[in-house]
Amino acid sequence: MKTQTTLCIALFLASPAALAATTEDAPPASIExxxxxxxxxxxxxxxxxxLNGFRAPSIGLEYRTGLISFHAxxxxxxxxxxxxxxxxxxxxxxxxxxxxxxLPVRMMGHERSSFYAGAAYVNDFDKTGxxxxxxxxxxxxxxxxxxAFLRLGASVLYAPGxxxxxxxxxxxxxxxxxxxxxxxxxx
Length: 187
Known about the structure:
This protein is of the alpha+beta class and 187 residues long.
């Protein structure tokens, strides 16, 4: 008798009617979570024009489409060894490059916050001896409110053609890269 009852219950639970009843009775929270996951996944799928007001990746424009963005602008940073001894050590570079966007997260209800990593070509346009080089960068962009964002990252600058007045002439510099800017959605 127990075996027959168990078999009847198992057959009922495997029936299409029972399966339909369990999926119709799914709690709304699971549907909301699925929608949030879908929104987070699509958060870096749109198109944006970013107006970067400070260093990361440069003071200039950036066009993002999906997981990739292209940027160009001016990049100021204090890296001259002489600048550490009291002389104005700000070096200005022309900078152009590409970034990849990944791992979008929802912070404070905004869906476009995510991590990024990029590479760029830099050229010292105020002739402080750094010449041309490359820069790699990684960090996080936090959309604070309606397109306004903050970035915090770090970069490694490599300038193989650097010339300097002292005997110790390093060609690598690690720099913090904070930023503030505004993103305009294009879709």
